[in-house]
Amino acid sequence: MNAPSTPALAAHGLRARLGGVPVLHGIDLALAPGGWTSIVGPNGAGKSTLLRVLAGLLPHDGQVLLQGRRLAQWPARARARTLAWLAQGGVADAAADDLSSYDVAMLGRLPHQRWLAAPSAADRAAVEEALRRTQAWDWRARPLGQLSGGERQRVLLARALAVQAEVLLMDEPLANLDPPHQADCLAMARELAAAGHTVVTVLHELHAALSADRVLVMAAGRVVHHGASGDAATHRALEDVFEGRVRVHAVDGQWVALPH
Amino acid sequence: MMRDAMHSLTRLVRRAAALCALAVLPVHAAPLQATDDLGTVVRLAAPPQRIVATLPSLTETVCELGACGRLVGVDRYSNWPAQVRALPQVGGGLDPNVEAIVALKPDLVLVAQSSRVVERLQGLGLTVAVLEPKTHADVQRVMRRVADLLGVAGAEADAVWRRIDAAVEAAAQSLPLERRGTRVYIEVNTGPYAAGQSSFIGETLTRLHARNIVPAELGPFPKLNPEYVVRANPALIMVGARSAAGLEQRPGWAGIEAVKTGRVCRFTAEQSDVLVRPGPRMAEAARLMAGCLARPAPSGG
Amino acid sequence: MHAARAHWLALWLLLAAAGLLLLGAAIGSTGVERLWQMQADPTAWQIVWDIRVPRTLGAWLAGALLGLAGAVAQGLFRNPLADPYLLGSASGASLAVALALTAFGVSPGATHWVVRLGMTGAAFTGAVLAVLLTLTLARGVQQTLRLLLAGVIVGVVLGALKDLITIASADVLQAITAFMLGSTGLVGWSAGAVMAATLAVCLLAAWMLAPVLDSLALGEATAASLGLPLPAMRAALVAVLALATGAAVAQTGLIAFVGLAAPHLVRSILKTTHARLVPLSALMGGLLLMAADLLARWLIAPQELPVGVLTAVLGGSYLLWLMHRRGRGRVA
């Protein structure tokens, strides 16, 4: 993008370790506001780690700037209102089984609610919109434990949407979703980006990643390429990072990467 | 030649006599024996010189019969008379240290009924007698058995018993008549666990002509509803000092006659030992309780 | 939706508790008596007001404290098998009581302190100190697994120390066993007032912190991303846990199973957020302990059964039946 505005998310010299092992080796990036970037790379490239660091959930060396301000300088609630994060893998343990879908989605409004206040009309409206968007509204009263994997994932997605944050970071949002709902999720990401939100997703489904606006290719804890998803350079970088085991093709007006 | 034959014959007869004597002797060669609480007949060839006792009342019985010097090991709870405290300790009554007992090379081991160590010790070749006095009648019986095993004459043991029994009777007689029939509540531990009529301390109380508020049907140490004590309204409470903290502040207890008049006897740990152990110090226990019964109320009740 | 059902459950639990309170006033050392007959006799009436009513209320309050602590523990550790004693508070309380019992009579100074503190003060102090020790070992509240591990270690070590002390003296052993089996026998009005105040404080705090428990259920990272000050809030939750458990243990001894079973019993009836689960667990725990206490007093009157045995029988039987019913209904 050629707009000189403050990047929504920027990183300078980011280094991070997981369990003592260095995972990110000096990452620099700048993401302009209002667009959908997907991060791709082989296993162990550090994609999830990068996302967590950008969300402020992991200790790191280097700087992360959210809308031009260092993350550490953001008050916690203001940061939570501006940046929403969706975890990878859904809710693994059974601790949330008792919460209804509505209650789970309402948790996304915590950064907006005054402490101990009942949900306001704005909160309820946001939750309803989020649940409808992920087609989870009809069974909003059902507890999470009685939902299938895909249904749970949609509720968790609704939780992230309910925050109505300007920046949305999603780690593997398509897990457990069947193809129609995968398409819905991708369409939703595109809508949000078009409406001015900054969406960053880690996706291992390469066709989904290539439907984003921009692609960030990672390998071994470094950024290898950052460019538009339609660029040939991006496609070559993608093929290189997978050691030529994938080929990018145009199919039906979309870019797909097929194993080779 | 006749003299040689006579010599051989004499030698033969002598040898035969010796053999006969040897054959006959073993039948009468078990001078000490007694039947223990498990019904086993315990036999000893000679009076034991190295005795291990694993129950305080048995230790005290041995010492009362004059064989204190022959004790080589006691359990950790035996503390009377003072000289047994210097002896090696071989664990508790419920958890005796087998190795420590064997290392002392005892020729008689006295254990309680609740001990699980009997077969182990017998398997290791030791002579074990299982005796556990629980009531007044038990004290006399156990004393007699222990005397038999120690080689103390039966008459002597009986004399010891008569002395103790007379002292108990004297304690009972020492009480003024108006103290007879006093309603007494004895608490042995926080719970509250009371001492019933069928417990040892309850029997002592009965001999002192006092009334226990806990009847025999409830067993020796029932865990009571505190309300029961309030209802029974004892005139005198006997309790160990350790568990007595806060007794008067228990809900509803301020109305009990004993609490109102201040007739609460708090016994020290040593005194509690005397009161609770079914052993030769019964007389002292009776004297302690009689003293408590005879004492006037602090507020003149 | 859930709100109506939750309110009905709360009402039902309170009504049942009121009914049992009435029953509790009638059950005593002579079994069940008629209350209106007792009203005629002033001594008997005094027994009802001085002993039975405070003790029955005390049972409800202790059960409520344990139920609340159990719900908080299960939410904090995201583990349905968690109970209030997980951070070592049970062993700490027993050790403190054992020390107090042994210290009695050792020296005038020690005796004076023991009498002043009382067994209840000792138990409470021991419970709280044990939790502090666990926190120190785990170096803070952030790592759930480390906290759990530290709690188990502290529990085992302090329990072993208590065993060492109690085996040295036979009558301390009996007193400690009575403490560990639990009893409401010596709970009066002042003890009840202390528990009521603690319950009010802990309920308020837990209700305020309920959103933390809910968001923790979604994962620690998600909860952090929602802008919640997790370390401070977890520390507050651990404090609520320690306070509630300590207050209950101090007055009634160690009563097992109430803290574990009460939240499960509530969840078997309705599924809801922690803002409702915690108070409902308190109500359920109170009812459970009250019922167990009534049975403990009534079955072999004038003797009493250990109430901890009955809570296990009552709560455990119901949970077993639930499991059986669920197992039968499941598709093979």
Break the fold down into its secondary structure elements and pairings:
The complex is a heterotrimer of chains A (260), B (301) and C (332).
Chain A (H helix, E strand, L loop, with lengths): L8 E10 L2 E11 L3 E6 L6 H8 L6 E6 L2 E2 L5 H7 E4 L14 H7 L13 H13 L15 H14 L4 E5 L7 H16 L3 E5 L3 H4 L4 E6 L2 E7 L3 H10 L4 E6 L2 E6 L1
Parallel strand pairs in A: 3-8, 3-9, 6-7, 7-8
Antiparallel strand pairs in A: 1-2, 1-4, 4-5, 9-10, 11-12
Chain B lengths: L1 H23 L7 E4 L5 E4 L6 E3 L2 H9 L6 E4 L23 H6 L4 E4 L6 H6 L4 E3 L5 H15 L3 H21 L8 E7 L3 E2 L5 H8 L3 E2 L13 H7 L3 E5 L16 H5 L2 E4 L1 H8 L5 H13 L7
Parallel strand pairs in B: 3-4, 3-5, 5-6, 7-9, 7-10, 10-11
Antiparallel strand pairs in B: 1-2, 7-8
Helix pairs in contact in B: 5-6, 6-11, 7-11, 10-11
Chain C lengths: L1 H25 E2 L2 E2 L2 H6 L1 H35 L12 H15 L4 H30 L6 H24 L2 H12 L7 H20 L1 H7 L3 H6 L4 H23 L5 H12 L4 H25 L8 H23 L3
Antiparallel strand pairs in C: 1-2
Helix pairs in contact in C: 1-3, 1-13, 3-8, 3-11, 3-12, 3-13, 4-5, 4-6, 4-7, 5-6, 5-11, 8-11, 8-13, 12-13, 12-14, 13-14
Query: Unreliable segments of chain A (pLDDT under 50, ≥5 consecutive)?
Result: none
Distance between the termini of chain A: 32 Å
Radius of gyration of chain A (CA) equals: 18 Å
Number of strands of chain A: 12
Task: Determine the fraction of residues in helical runs of chain B and give it as a percent range.
Answer: 40-55%
Structural class, judged by helices and strands of chain B? alpha/beta
What level of helicity do the residues of chain A show?
25-40%
What overall form of chain B do the CA principal axes indicate? elongated
Q: What's the arrangement of strands in the largest beta sheet of chain A?
A: 6-7-8-3-9-10
CATH topology of the largest domain in chain B: Rossmann fold
- Average per-residue pLDDT of chain B, rounded, comes to 87
Strand content of chain A: 25-35%
Backbone structural class of chain A: alpha/beta
Shape of chain A: globular
Distance between the termini of chain B: 105 Å
Radius of gyration of chain B: 26 Å
The amount of beta strand of chain B, in percent, is 5-15%
